[in-house]
Design a protein that fits this description.
Keywords: Signal. The chain is α+β, with helices and mostly antiparallel strands. The protein is 32% helix and 10% strand.
């Protein structure tokens, strides 16, 4: 039981910094503004399409 608890605690310590890595400047190590995600759009049938397509609506 103790081994499971210790392994879970170690995993949580390692997984925390990994989640913040995309918005961190690799040279300075400081946090920077995250780049904007590209827009995703769907058509009337629910399929993903390019946002310039006629009838496409942005999601999320």
């Amino acid at each position: 039981m103790r081994h499971l608890l210790a392994a879970t605690a170690a995993l949580m310590l390692v997984a925390g910094p990994v989640a913040a890595a995309p918005c961190k400047d690799p040279k300075t190590g400081k946090f920077a503004k995250c780049p904007a995600r590209p827009a995703k759009c769907k058509n009337a049938r629910g399929q993903f399409v390019k946002c310039g397509t006629p009838g496409a609506k942005p999601i999320g």
